[in-house]
Amino acid sequence: MNEISDAFNSSSTIPAPSARLGWQDSPDRRGTLDIVWSCVFSILLCLWTMLHLNVPTENDTYITIFWRKMRWLILGILAPELPMLFACGQYASAKRSVEDFRSLGYSEEQWTLCHAFYADSGGFKLQTEDFQAFPITAKQLHYLVNHRYVSLPAMSRDEIWDKSKADGVAKTMAFSQSGWLIAQTIGRGVQRLPITPFEISSLALICSSMTTLWFWWHKPLDVRTATVLDTTASVVDILREGGEAAKEPFLDTPLDFIEGRVYMSSKWSRHVLRWIRAVRLQKRPLDRIPNDRDPQANLRQHCLLGIGTATFASVHLAGWPFEFATRWEQALWRGGCIGVWVLLCLYGSTEMAVCYRENYEVPGLESGKGYKMRWPHCLLFFVPATLYFMARVGLLVVTMSSLASLPEGAYQTVQWSDLLPHL
After folding, report:
1. Residues whose CB falls within 8 Å of the CB of residue 409, separated by 6 or more in sequence, listed in order
2. How many distinct structural domains can be found in the chain?
């Protein structure tokens, strides 16, 4: 009887309710995927927003344009100083163009930085009676307007900007994501939490991308079609009146004598360039302005470029005390940081010396001499460039390999409540 009673009581007993909790904070941890995704998303968003490539040809398909942009995206990761260098040079050319047109009496509304960038990106093509249409730069347009071969295009800044595909939402997202990554890095530094090499490399690329975007801020984005300028003059007439500078055969367009070759590829000898044209590796005349256009910058613009490149190199040095899993990773990281710093300083010093001590000459309207690059400058350009590329690859290898073994503190999140003032 007692057994039956005990069985009944045990079967009718109501189980105790599970423990209930109020508001709970999420775990103060983050995973490897969280680190990678946040950095990769920030890098791709900044680089894609930063790239302002020149006007393509009418025959370029969307696939061609996409892969061209992808190549520059990869270049922006491997050597972010190159897009910054080109952007600085194009900004310098645009500033000079505005001053040149001011000297002809045109107002600030008639020719702006936007007009100059549009011209230098291949936005204007010259159509003569005896030659196919070819792109002209802002300086070449200034020469044509000054000699009354064409009239200044009656296009307002708004009309040019209407051709641009600049997306304010994408730029806002890029700035927001970059700001969040920077805030996270600062917060981790304040709370003495390890900052991973992946985050440091991402922060350096973002700083470089933002500097490049600043130089290209007034450049129209993803313009697909150029504006054709008609002239009654022939190319023969323009060359005949160009004087001694116009007698040399052109390599890019018939108006090379006005400005000369200002592309990164022009650092090769003219013999190599002539061979490239002879085997038809590049169309002649050019049907678009190459994206490696690198006009000369003045001292102030070189200083701005130097600040941008120095910031990129300095950010990597922040990872100097990081505890790597192996000694070879630590040695490769520190060696890469030093290599990037030294090589950037060497190239910057050489470029300044070459520009202001006239170790090489660029053909122009004032001198009929051809492009000349001295062998010392060739060595001081290509040797550091090769070593720099090796240093950058080393840093990228360590950046990826370090994710396999990180300190425990690297997975802790920033406690923002400790950083905010409270009573």
Report:
1. 193, 194
2. 1
